[in-house]
Structures are given as C-alpha cells and as structure tokens.
C-alpha cells in the first residue's frame, strides 16, 4: 500500500538497461529474431550511444527526444510483462518504471503502465497476480513526489485492482491511510471538483465491495459535497445523490440525516425522485405513524428500495421516533403508554425497544418499571432548527438562573463568614490584652485560669 516516498535504484546506462528490457520482452512474447522490439529500437540506441560518446557533447534535448522515442516503443509492448514468470514479474516492471521515471514525459509512460496493471490480468499467476499488480502500483506511487498529480491516477488504479479482485486484506491495509491522507492528497494533487468526486466515489465503491458500508457512505457523502450548485440537477449529480440517499436509508447505523437534507443535489431529487425524497423527510424528522402512512401509497420497490430492507427500515424509524419522544418529553419523563402508542407496539415490548434505542446511542436514561416511565437523561435531536434552538435557549436560561442563585448564596455565606471571622479576631485580641493585664497584678490570675470569660469581665471593670 502507499507509503512514504522512496527511490528505485538500478545501475546501468539508459541504452544498456532499455536494450536488456527490450530483449526480455521479446523473449516473453516469443518474437522471432529481427521482428521484436529490440530490433526496432536498435538503430536509435546506436545513435544515442554515439552522441553520448562523442568528443563534443551533443545537444541533451535531442538525446532525450530519442530516448523518449525508444521508451514509447518499449512501453507500447510492455503489456507482455503480465505474462512474465511470477519470480521475474516484479524485477521486470521495476526496470520499466525506472526507465520511465527518467523521462520528462514520465507521467504519460507511467499512466500507460498503470493501465496494464489495473485493466489486464497477470496471466502468469492466477493466485498471486493481484498482489503482484498492487505491489508494482505501490512502487510507482511511492517513487512519485508527494505533490505529483500522477499519484492520483496511480491511486485510482490501485483502487480499481482492489475492487475487481475483492482483495479485503489489501483494503484493510489501505484503510488507515484513507482516514488520514485523503484530504491531504486532494489538496496536494490540486484536484478539481470532478476528480475529487471520482476519487471519493472510487473509495466508496471499494469500501462497499469489501463490506464496509459505513465508510462507503462516508465517502459518498464527501463526493456529494463536491457537486457545485449549478450542477445539482444534472443526471450524474442526481445519480450520486440517489445512491447516497439509498445508502443512508438502508444502513442500520445511519440515524443522522441532516448532512443530506442540506445538499442541493439531494434537494434536486424532490422533482426527479419525489417518493424517495419524501421518505428522507420522514426519517429526518417524522415518526412511525407517518412512515406507515407513506408505505400505503408508496411501496419500497416503487422508490428503488429493496423489499429486503423493509424490516430494517421499520426498526430504524421506530428508534428514531423514540429519540423524538425523548427529546420532547416534558419534565424529562416519558410514560410507557406514550411510547407504546407512538410505536404501535404492546406495552410489554416498550422496555426492549428502549434498550435498543440506548444501544443505538439515540437516548440515555433509566427505565422505571414501578412508575412505568423512562427517565430521560439525554436525547438526540433528529433535526436542529428554530424550535430546537428555542428549547436550548430556555434550558440555558433556567441553568443561568440556577447558577445565579448558587452564586448569590455563596456570596452571602462568604460575607457572613468574613464578618464573623473579623469579630472573632477582635475578641481574641481584646481577651489577650485583658488577660495579660490581669496576670501582671500580683500573679493571682492562675487561680481562675479555667474561667477565662469571668476573668476577662473582672479585668474590664478596673
């Protein structure tokens, strides 16, 4: 998998190495003598050698032009390397990559090589062919500078191989880098919206093929974010919006639909896929009763949702209904009867559903069998608009008044403590003076030492 950039070191002059590679390609292709790529490039290689060995240096640009002509012919035949023996496959491709990387036109050559590795099977090894292709593609990715736009094409080829071969191990190895590097790569490669969208959708495809539907939805959503406002109604945008919406609805772990509601491409579905758009609004802010009413006139298959998702969708909307009930509960108390009516379930099943809602992270609280109520400690808002802001403002005002009361009480007690503390200090100082004065008169103070207040009063009378 892609790693920090490195260098591919291979010794030898261009003429020697390219002649060796051409000869190897002819061997793999079983070309007849004089008809292979080696014979095609021989005249040009001879001229390159003469110019490089001449006493007067030749124009470097003319030499490079001839080198590129040679490379075009060699790279054009390099697809034959996919039939090379497994033990020789990596070495042969590394030599081809090394030669291509020396050219100012390397991006053109490397892109062609990537197509060989991602679009054609490695015929020499059915078992390890995909791994050999991924290893070679990773080598190409890593020798390129971090800000090279060619890295984008190489990475897309890597994703294509992983998806086409269902290589879950390769995807698992790639996942940690996806989480940290994709935003950096988009910036470093200076991708426009279209290329960035293609990258995100390709990652989503690979994630879905590997069974990671949460990651797939995440990158579909990223792809949706790259659609400009003026393109929201285009066919391609609608297709992506619809796919993202279906992924959100059919994923049991997705309960927050606010990121979708705000997207203009999703809003454009109001005209092209009104049923699906209405269902989104129900899952975003409505309840189970609205969902059952919707299904009466809109079967799932009519809005391109599979019937197999029916049970999961019913479970999800019930859990979301619980979240709404808890968020709007007065005095933070939610009676079992209210839950039972809203979910259209027997009262004895309420606790099971509440436990499921807690596990889903939608609510927190305590179940009281004695009082037949759920004591709400926290609830998830499904939508956050003016009403929710108003509720939060009200709660903040209550907390503010409570804190003001606490601060007032603390201030009052502090002032009382300071007054009492100051009075006690004065009394102690006066007592010490009087007691000391009395003891200085004939030493009789010791007789009533255990009755100091009396002695203080007595001295004060002199």
TrEMBL record:
Q: Where is the PCI domain?
A: 212-381
Question: Where in the cell does this protein reside?
Answer: Cytoplasm
Cellular component, GO annotation: eukaryotic 43S preinitiation complex; eukaryotic 48S preinitiation complex; eukaryotic translation initiation factor 3 complex, eIF3m
Q: Which GO terms describe its molecular function?
A: translation initiation factor activity
Which domain of life does this protein belong to?
Eukaryota
Q: What InterPro entries does the entry give?
A: COPS7/eIF3m (IPR045237), eIF3m (IPR027528), eIF3m_C_helix (IPR040750), PCI_dom (IPR000717)
Which residue ranges have biased composition labelled Gly residues?
Answer: 437-446
Which keywords accompany this UniProt record? Cytoplasm, Initiation factor, Protein biosynthesis
Any idea what job this protein has?
A: Component of the eukaryotic translation initiation factor 3 (eIF-3) complex, which is involved in protein synthesis of a specialized repertoire of mRNAs and, together with other initiation factors, stimulates binding of mRNA and methionyl-tRNAi to the 40S ribosome. The eIF-3 complex specifically targets and initiates translation of a subset of mRNAs involved in cell proliferation.
Q: How does it assemble?
A: Component of the eukaryotic translation initiation factor 3 (eIF-3) complex.
The family line of this record is: Belongs to the eIF-3 subunit M family.
Q: What is this protein called?
A: Eukaryotic translation initiation factor 3 subunit M
Q: Which organism is it from?
A: Endocarpon pusillum (strain Z07020 / HMAS-L-300199)
